[in-house]
Amino acid sequence: MMKHLGGLMRLKQYCIPDPRAENIDEILLDEIEAGSRVIDLGCGDGRLLHKLREEHECFVQGVELDMEEVLIAMHRGVPVLRADLDNGLQGIPDDSFDFAVLSQTLQQVRHTKELLTDMLRVAKKALVVVPNFAHWRVRFQLAFYGRAPVTEELPYQWYDSPNLHVMSMIDFQELVKRLNLRVIKELPIIRDRAVDHAWAANWRAVSVLYVLERASEVSHQ
Amino acid sequence: MATQMTETFRMDERSVGLVETKSATLFEPPNELELENGMRFGPISVAYETYGQLTPEKDNAIFICHALTGDAHAAGWHSPESEKPGWWDDFVGPGKGLDTRKYFVICANVLGGCHGTTGPSSINPKTNKPYCLSFPFITVSDIVKVHSELVRHLGIERLLSITGGSIGGMQVLEWDARFPDQIHSAMCMASAAKLSAQGIAFNAVGRRAILKDPNFNDGDFYDNEHGPRSGLALARMVAHITYLSEDSLEKKFGRRLQHSEKLGFDLLRETEFQIESYLHYQGKRFVERFDANSYLYLTKAMDYFDLTNTYGSLEQAFSCGAARYLVTSYTSDWLFPTVQSRELVSELIRSGRHVTFLEFNSPYGHDSFLMEEEINNLERLVHPFLDQLYFVIRGETN
To answer: Cβ contacts of residue B285 below 8 Å, gap of 6+?
Structure first.
């Protein structure tokens, strides 16, 4: 029984729950320079990587667990390693990419800290999109109805949510500091748009794109 | 590698039907093959089969590199009376993994083999006697050079893909490193950049069994009716265990007895357990179709294979090519474990190659890539891999 549930969870685990995924893709595309080497962790059907390869001349690599998604990515000509992010990025050589992308997935992996650190082992920069659980709708549902929040962006009931971790912008910033990583950019995503320097972002952002790098590298520059 | 049970002739719409083995003579003097050991060798007859149609552009050819004891007969039937179809018939045919409605598939017997390509049992034109142990020492690299020449001989400049499992996968890797411009893609199954110590160990036991057989006679046994049959059968029995998994042996045979319900307390009864009987059967069938000298030469070629050693590093071996890779491994394969495929994938990524990697969850051990039960999974993967690449190539050439 447990095994069966585990299987079901797995199927959903690294799919992007956000119906606005394409908007997020556009926001990510804006941050990736043409010709870069990009690895997308939880690449799903390879949509983002396909675009990067075809339109931006990037060298791309996907990582995905779900077999059906892997096959769709292959139909697009996107190279994929079938792997579970919970097992880390072992086997991917150090510094083999310019960008490691992790979109709407960090809250679903078991070893959050290890994965973030590992992303910056294999790539110079990490692009991480995380949902903001401190969005006002979420706060409202919890405060006024006393219910675990279910929103358009976080559409799961508490008992079937793939999200293992719940974080806000403030929480994420704190973790980044603790891991000795540096935030190059913080882009709150409000109404499908990335808004630089948004006011009251921790209330208004549905999710946030962070561009991270190793803090130690900054000292060399 | 596992011998299939007898099947009956079927000519369904997914079979390539009746096929025959063809032969080409290459490397005729003075253009002998330069072997890795420095010697020159020729002429070389190569036995091969083809399935499907080559396009006028000659852009749809796929080459199959067979495993240790395979042959050129990968698919279809030699005659309606044949006991079984080609060794990869589940994977090659109309609508199958290598879809012969779209692709032109070639499979050739390896140099040093015993199914039509020049090997130790072939007649040396200089002496009119079999080469026996005067056949030169050959390596995976030499095998690939012959395949590569056959492809040129067939008028094909660039293959859409090459594929193979086990030592066939080693040929795939070697091909990519040695003739990178001759291939668009490579599909490497249950293989590795070098044979593990454990793999060499099992090969050593197999060779020892042959060499110590009283009928071996320094490899000169072709006029002897018997030859080192028991040694070769024993080599096969040991090797066969390495192609399976503990789990599959347990499921298939367990501790069940072959002929009776009760233990016989008979020390010399060799086929008491079902697994014993099965291995004996495998050994017996094998000596009917394989040459002991070829077994020595080919296992040694496998032991010698080490891409790192030949090219300085894996990164260097992979740095010249641009072919796309599909690498697959099987969870229960302990002869070529997944960790070896992962090592390949790591280095391919480091070299900036286009690589897709999957580990299949299979109980059947190393032989999984040949098993009917696993072929569907492989097929689902190979279709988008080949189709998308072919689409890109056609777009480029049109």
So the answer is: B3
